Amino acid sequence: MLLPLALSFCALAAASPLVQKYRPLVLWHGLGDSHSSPGMLEFASLIGEMYPGIFIHSIYIEQDADADRKATFYGNVNSQVDMVNEQLNDIPELKDGFDAIGFSQGGQFLRAYVERYNDPPLHNLITFGSQHMGVSEVSECRRYDFLCQIARRAVKNGVYSKWAQGNLVQAQYFRDPSNLETFLEANHFLTSINNEVAPIDGRNETYARNLASLEHLVLVLFTKDVTVIPKESAWFGSAAEPDESDDSLTVMQEKILGSTTSGEETTIIPMRRQPLYLEDWIGLRTLDEQGRVILETCEGEHMQIGDCWKPLVKKFVGSPA
Ligand SMILES: *[C@@H]1O[C@H](CO)[C@@H](O)[C@H](O)[C@H]1NC(C)=O
Predict the structure, then answer these.
(1) How far apart are CA 168 and CA 157, in angstroms?
(2) How far is CA 91 from CA 100, 182, 223, 318, in A?
(3) Which of the residues are catalytic?
(4) Of the chain's two ends, which shows fewer C-beta atoms within 10 Å, N or C?
(5) Distance in Å, CA 117 to ligand 1 centroid
(6) Other CB atoms closer than 10 Å to residue 166's CB: what's the count?
(7) What is the b/e burial string over 56-75, where b = at least 16 CB atoms within 10 angstroms of the residue's CB?
(8) Nearest to residue 138, comparing CAs of 151, 126, 127?
(9) Strand ranges (DSSP E) for 162-247?
(10) Predicted TM-score (pTM) above 0.85
(11) Which residues have C-beta atoms less than 6 Å from ligand 1?
């Protein structure tokens, strides 16, 4: 008696237009975190409360949580993004496309997925405190986080060495504006996704076409972020080359044209003044000119996310599937 009833209920539910089906969501955690940490599980469950029944996938490099956390420090980012592409392709729920949220470095890694693969396609990408223009310093570690401390020391020992660039995650988005030449030669991840090195046959147009196909790119900057240096990297800002910021005329122009100053000395080149943007190497300008790049802030230090995510998730996640 019960069984047929249950079956007919299922059939009814599937056929009913009243049952809301949401576009699936993919999450990519940050440095020192794992796909199944308490924080990530809680975040996923809060989104599940907002959109009952929404399908959520939390990206992993390793299924074991400790190994996954380790892979946020050690590994080859290009290979990790390749692997994630395969992982996403194996999930039937995602086959018609999805939205995604990237925390910290997970944000630029998701952008790499969009630019290189985007099949299945991403609709809205939200990145929180990500390092889209890299970092010019390696951030401090928590006191007893030895995994972090060892990785940090290794990065500081030779960030542009072949080994570091192939094996230390943070080194692969380290971009020192006072030594761009070495960065452009040594780096094979950030230079690539920012289309900053033009290969002989030009910049990769697939990257620009794919990024420009997003519905929205939502870039969230933490106002008191001292972990990401400079914090404006979350908005595609970067520190000016030292000779530029020493030139007072340039500094004046930067100020007039709307640059912000971070700390005492550093002049920040904002997104809309980056060559990457001006020449539209990655489709960012195309997106922005259509009003589809959303610059948002959260008050506080890096990843002090509080309730700041709620209006963004309300607006950019949970579209009808
Ligand atoms: C551009 O990127 C796509 C996607 O990663 C790749 O398949 C293609 O070979 C690249 N093209 C060039 C000219 O490097």
Answers:
(1) 11
(2) 14, 39, 36, 18
(3) 104, 225, 302
(4) N
(5) 10
(6) 16
(7) bbbbbbeeeeeebbbbbbeb
(8) 151
(9) 216-222, 238-239
(10) yes
(11) 116, 199, 201, 204, 206
Q: Where are the domains of the chain?
A: 20-34+73-300+308-316
Q: How far is the CA of 1 from the centre of ligand 1 (A)?
A: 58
Using the structure block, give the residue that is written with the tokens 């990145």: 127
Query: Quick one: how many helices (H) and strands (E) in the chain?
Result: 15, 9
pLDDT value, residue 242: 74
45 Cα: distance to centroid of ligand 1 (angstroms): 37
Mutate to test the pocket of ligand 1, among 204, 207, 209 (most ligand atoms within 8 A of CB): 204
CATH 3.30.565.10 applies to domain 20-34+73-300+308-316:
no
**Atom 13 of ligand 1, residue of closest alpha carbon:** 204
pLDDT along the chain (321 residues), means of 10: 38 52 98 96 97 98 97 97 98 98 98 98 98 92 87 88 95 94 95 88 92 98 94 96 56 47 72 97 98 97 94 98 90
- Residue minimizing CA distance to atom 9 of ligand 1: 204
Q: What's the confidence (pLDDT) of residue 15?
A: 47
